C-alpha cells in the first residue's frame, strides 16, 4: 500500500462547497503517479520516453462522506487485480482529521502503446511494482460482478 | 433521452494526448446540468435558491475508445433508475464524427439538503423531469450487482 | 468582434463561491478557439494538423466584478495589436444578466512551430482572421506600458 | 520569500503538450495558499472561518519558457506591494531541472468580506505575514504603469 496526503485546494470544491465528484479521479491519478514514482524517471518517463501509458478502461467510485476545503485526504493505493496487460488499483480516500472514509475507487488500466493506442505487454518493472502492492480482494460485494 | 453536443477543448487532453479519464465526469455533470435546464432557474436555482443538490454516491465509467482534441462527443443522457430519494443517470458518450461509443457512465445521485448535507425527499418537479426520461435497463451485465 | 455566451458551470466556482480567477483564462482560451472556428478545421487543425500553435507570452487580467454559478458571461473578443508573428487579443467579459463588466483580459500570443517550439511566420489565413477583427486601442491606461 | 516545489501533473498539459497557460494561475494560488500556511488554520480558516478572502483584482503573467509533464517548477513567492487593503504578490516560476525562468506573475488581491463581497481592512496577522516577505521592486519595466 502506498499512501499520499492530499490537502484539498481552494479550487477543488464546487458550487455546493464540497469537493466536486470528478476531482476524486484527479486525486486517484495523482496517487497513481505517486505509486509509480519508484520507476526510473517516474510515470513521466514511462509516458514520454517509453511511450507506454495506462489509460483507464473502467472506474468505479463510491462516495460516502463529503470533503471540504481546508481538509486533507489520505489516499491509500493498492492493487487488487493484476492481469497480463491490465491492473486494477483501489484507492481508499480517508479524511485525515477524523479517519472517515470519503470515497473508494477502483480503477482498471491497460498497458498501452501510446503511438498505436493499442494494448501492449506489461513492462517488467511496471509488473514488479504492481506485484509488490498486490492485495487481492475477497469475494463480498464484488462477487457477482467478477463471476 | 436528452442530448448534448460537447466539443473537446484544448485543455481537456492530457500528456497522452487523449481526453483525461476524469474529464468524462465533468462532461457527465455538464450533461446533467443540461438535463435539468427545464427546471425553473435551472440546476443553479435548485442549488443556490432551494439549497437542494444531487451529490454523487456512486459512479461507474466504462471507457471504450479514446477521444481527441478537435473531436466532439454527443452525450445522450437518460435515467435508468428512479428511487425515492435517488436516481441513476446513464450517459452514453459517442464520438460525433464516427458514431463510436467512447464512454458510458452510470451516476447515482441522492437528493440532498445542502445546509444539513443530509438526504431529503425528492422535489416533485425534479421527479417529474427524471420520470420523463426514465428508461429502465434490462438485467444483463448489471444483474449480479443489483441483486 | 466575436461574441461567445458562456454559462458558468457548477465546478467553475471556488471555496469563496465565485468564479475562480484562473478560470477566466480558460474562458479566454475558449473564446480564442471560437474566434478561430472559421479556419478550415478550426483551431484544432492548426494545432494538430499544421502543428502551429499560439502559446501565450503575456496575459493581463483586470477583475472588476464577481460572477457566480447560474450566471452567464458574454465574452467579446477582438484583436488590439497585430505584429509580424504576434497578436494581442482583448476579451471583455460581461455578465449577461446585468451588463456589468466582470473581467477584461489582454492576451498576447506568438505563432509557434510546435515541433521546434520556436516562433514561426504567421500563416496568411490566421493573419486575415486577426485583421478582420483588429480594433487598435487608443493610448489611455496602456500608454506608459506600450511607449 | 516562500518557496514551493510543484511537480507538473499528467493533466496539467494541453493539446500542445506544454503546461496550459491558465494553470500558472492555479499554481500561483497554490503558492499563495502555501504562503499563508503559517496563519492559524491556514488560508482555509481565513476563508471559511473568518469569511475573509483575497480575490484578485489584477494579474499580469509573463511566459518565457514552456514546461512539460515530468518537470517541476520551483515557485518563489514574495510581496512586492503592500497597501491598506491590498497586496501584490510576485511569483517567479523556475524550472527545477535547469533553473530557467518559465513564468513570472504579479497578482494583486484585496482583503474582502466574503459575506458582503466588499473590501475590508486587512487583518493584522495577514499584514504581518505579508510584511515579513515584502520585497518592493525598483522602477524598471513597471514604471510607466505604476506612475
List the SSEs and their pairings:
The structure is a homotetramer of 147-residue chains.
Chain A: E1 2-7, H1 23-35, H2 42-49, E2 52-53, E3 56-63, E4 72-82, E5 86-95, E6 101-110, E7 112-113, E8 118-119, H3 124-132, H4 143-146
Antiparallel strand pairs in A: 1-4, 2-7, 3-6, 4-5, 5-6, 7-8
What does this structure look like?
4 copies of one chain form a homotetramer. Chain A is α+β, with helices and mostly antiparallel strands and 147 residues long. Chain A has one domain (2-132): Thiol Ester Dehydrase, Chain A (Roll). Chain A contains 4 helices and 8 strands. Chain A has helices at residues 23-35, 42-49, 124-132, 143-146; strands at 2-7, 52-53, 56-63, 72-82, 86-95, 101-110, 112-113, 118-119. A 5-stranded antiparallel beta sheet of chain A has the order 1-4-5-6-3. A 3-stranded antiparallel beta sheet of chain A has the order 2-7-8. In chain A, β4 (72-82) and β5 form a beta hairpin. Chain A is globular and about 40 Å long. In chain A, 41% of the residues are buried. Residues 142-147 of chain A have low confidence and may be disordered. Chains A and B meet through α1, α2, β3 and α4 of A and α1, α2, β3 and α4 of B.
Total beta strand runs of chain A: 8
Class by alpha and beta content of chain A = alpha+beta
Could you give the order of the helices and strands of chain A? EHHEEEEEEEHH
Total separate domains of chain A: 1
Largest interface chains and counts? A-B, 33 and 33 residues
CATH architecture of chain A: Roll
How many DSSP helices of chain A?
A: 4
Main sheet makeup of chain A: 5 strands, antiparallel
Low-confidence stretches of chain A: 142-147
**Which oligomeric state applies?**
homotetramer
Please tell me how large the radius of gyration of chain A is: 16 Å
CATH topology group of chain A: Thiol Ester Dehydrase, Chain A
Strand content of chain A: 25-35%
User: How far apart, in Å, are the first and last alpha carbons of chain A?
Assistant: 26 Å
